[in-house]
Amino acid sequence: MTATIQDAARPFTGGALTALLSPATRLLGLGEPTHGVEAFPELRNEFFRHLVEHEGYRSIALESDCLSALVADAYVADGTATLDDAMNRGFSHGFGASPANRELLRWMRAHNEQRPPHERLRFYGFDGPLEITGAAPPRPALTALHDYLAAHLDLPRNRATLDELLGPDERWTNPAAMMDPAQSIGGTPETGKLRLIADDLSALLTAHAPHLTAATSPDDFWHAELHARTATGLLRYHAAMADTAPTRVGALMSLRDAMMADNLDAIVRREARFGPTLVFAHNAHLQRHQGRLDFAGTPLQWWSAGAIMGTRLGDQYAFAASTFGTRGSDVPHPDTLEGLLSPLPHPRTVIDPARLTTTLTRTPTPRTPADHTYVPLDPTATDQMDAIVFVKEI
After folding, report:
1. pLDDT at residue number 130
2. What InterPro entries does its record include (predicted)?
């Protein structure tokens, strides 16, 4: 009997998706093919509820600013401030306007209200404080790290030295620096000195970890580590923005995903006592294979946060990619992967990539995106995915 694509497909449910994953999974990446389409975060919400109620998951991490997310987590964990405040200040990239993200925080807070601290859900951002137009100033993260250490250790430099080297925040947030290296502050002597200071402070944090954890708390120390990672990562990113090499944009993409991976690594370690973590982001940040992009005629390659975490975690990392069929007039060609999946009868379908491969007589043609916000799945990389979620129409 000849296998068909239908044999590799099941209607989407949380159980149908988790059945394809290793039971050793500690970090589960659920990707979306484009931002700003509510169908994907709505599916994420449904799936996360299943993971919490049936699979022991206790945390979720989104492709959003790791520092801003502390506001959203405080609301979810303890009811600090209001839902409106958490949406306004707890997200980056405009994700605070998403109704599905609002519903996520509302449901997580309701779930936590009658539970003790060790059973409460946690919300994380795992992106750096980065936007398309540039990077945030390192001041908040660097000064928070300095102040935490200064309260318990004798430091060689005071806050006045940091403030003098940092200067006005406007120097760091100049949007022209994204495309013009000469506009970046990253190549100045002050930035070089700040990078050394951030590195020294991070080393002190590690060297005195036993004392600092006992003097404060494991949570306070974890937040200090977050500020250390963010300060050093931002300063490294700003320095790369000042680079004039033709590989500059690719280097920035690599640095961003490396920051993401370090944050995910820290989240997994923190959550190890409580349960696995769901991470939701663009497919390109969670995939195992190397990312490729043609930017202004220059081919770029970089490794995603998911690829890095796959190296670190092995089979404890799982990746479920998602994609879609039709969006308005954008109908996939029948020879593409999305075109081959489009005749499936269900609005949302879970695909077993391994079984799918056995049904194909040839590699599908790559889909040509209708706009730059959508990145189709690479049909040559389905063996790097643990599951595919196909949404028939958005």
Report:
1. 94
2. Emycin_Estase, Hydrolase/PRTase-associated, UCP036794_erythomycin
d(CA 375, CA 116): 41
Q: Could you tell me which of 238, 249, 136, 255 has the C-alpha nearest to residue 187?
A: 238
For residues 227-240, b (16+ Cβ closer than 10 Å) or e, as one string? bbbbbbbbbbbbbb
Q: Report yes or no: 101 and 111 within 8 Å, Cβ to Cβ.
A: no
Residue with tokens 């050394």: 196
Q: Do 237 and 128 form a contact (C-beta atoms < 8 A)?
A: yes
Angle made by CA atoms 254, 257, 263, in degrees to the nearest 5: 140
CA 242 to chain centre: 25
**5-132+260-393 maps to which CATH number?**
3.40.50.11550
Phi, psi of 156, rounded to the nearest 5 degrees: -75, -15
pLDDT digits (tens, 9 = 90+) for 252-289: 999 999 999 999 999 999 999 999 999 999 999 999 99
Domain spans in the chain, listed from the N-terminal domain onward: 5-132+260-393, 135-244
pTM: 0.96
The residue-averaged pLDDT of 243-253 equals: 92
- From residue 306, alpha-carbon distances to 108, 288, 302 in Å are 25, 6, 11
| Separation CA 60–CA 71 (nearest Å) | 15
Residue 390 DSSP one-character state: E
- The pLDDT, as a whole number, for residue 300 is 85
Residue with tokens 């973590």: 277
Beta strands in 97-241 (DSSP E): 122-127, 130-131, 134-135
- The answer, yes or no, to whether residue 27 has pLDDT greater than 50, is yes
pLDDT for residue 247: 87
Alpha carbon of 35 to those of 19, 103, 138: distances in Å? 27, 17, 27
**Residue with the two structure tokens 């309701």:** 110
From the list 367, 252, 310, the residue with the least C-alpha distance to 25 is: 310
